[in-house]
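We treat protein structure as text, and this decision shapes the records that our systems exchange. The tokens are whole numbers drawn from a learned vocabulary of local backbone shapes. One such record is reproduced below, unchanged from the form in which we store it:
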Amino acid sequence: MPNLVYVLIAALVGLAAGVLIGRVLLKQAFGRQEEEARERAQSIVKEAEMTAENIKRDRVLEAKEKYLKLKTEFEEEMNRKKNILITNENKLKQREQQISQMLEQNKRREGELNTQKDTLTQQTETTAKKREEAERMLASQVAQLEKIANLTAEDARNQLVDALKNEAQSLASSYVKSIVEEAKLTATKEAKKVVIETIQRTATEHAIENCVSIFNIESDDVKGKIIGREGRNIRALEAATGVEIIVDDTPEAIVISGFDPVRREIARLSLHRLVTDGRIHPARIEEIVAKTRKNIEDEIVEIGERTVIDLGIHGLHPELIKLVGRMRFRSSYGQNLLQHSREVAKLCATMAAELGLNAKLAKRAGLLHDIGKVWPEEPELPHAVLGAELAKKYKENPEVCNAIGAHHDEMEMTTMISPIVQVCDAISGSRPGARREMMESYIKRLKDLEELAVSFQGVTKCYAIQAGRELRVMVDAENVTDEKASTLSFDISQKIEKDMQYPGQIKVTVIREMRAVSYAK
């Protein structure tokens, strides 16, 4: 038992000693770690201070560099402005010197003019004295002559004038009588000779405008693409061009019908581009028609330039050249207006040469005599008077202006070229096969039909198709409702019945199309 106690006591003493030793060892370990942490913290602080110092130094250097750069730019800008001011100051000094020199020159000139004025005044006084002296001498001589002849100067003058007048009248009347008799014998013969030689020397083209164009296709499969699903493509094409597209059983051909040659040409070229491209849908159709219309405008200018070059006419105003090109797409009584004008120009030049007149001026007047017909607007003036005003506006020769305005006797003829243009216009229009009388009235009826429909409110476009048997009216969808479209169709038909004369019946179709457009961005 005592041994057990001693053992327990020894164990407790060993345990206590171990605890004390462990505490001492832990305290020493913690002390070393604390010192290491303190040293590490001090090194981190030193590194941070050095980094901050470096950053500070870099920022200061950057600030100095930016300051120096701004200072340099400011100095350069100031130097530039200073140089500009110095240059302007030098220019002002030079201008001031020039003005001073001009003032001195003006003063010298003023002095010279005053001297010349004094000299002229003296000469005028001397001349007046001499004139008075000469008049006195003349009066004395006249008085002496009257005393010798027993007749005053006025009576002698009257007797001499009466004698010369009687003699001149007798000679003139006999001369005029002989000229009139000779002219009666030879005038008709010479006129026929000039006209026949003019016609024989001028080649004419026997071509008549039609109201349809044929568009040839490679296969009938293309017809289905042109028509489109439920006919949307062909409707879009007709709405954009204003013509009627006839797709029937005719093999490998599509008929384009319309009275306006420009519309037919736009439709034909648009169809060619669409078929070549292969993409045929309403949006593409509108895009192609717009591009084709722009190309036609450029072609009109090119046609006008080529025409004046072919005829050897120079110095024509660009607007007149454009009007000449527009003649290619206009017909008069079934006769192409450009071919007619070219023909009249050649006839005028030939006839003027036969009569010994200015052939170039006559050719110029012949080409321009119908430009009033192709003016884009529709004034109430006759086309001859309008053409004369246009020629006068663009600085043409007065003889040309008078010939244009007088070729239908709507102005007085004041030059020899005017009757030549009138005669040549009649020759070109009256030759066999030149014109068809019904074409002009037919086209006028179609134009009147379109203008009547456009006069209604809300109508944006209008096209007469099927030889005037159908009128297609495009309206603004935002301003015209479906109910109003029906009423508008009825009102237009009633107006046509009341104001126009036409064969058969006319179908009025009002088309209202609503489009919703949005963009994906």
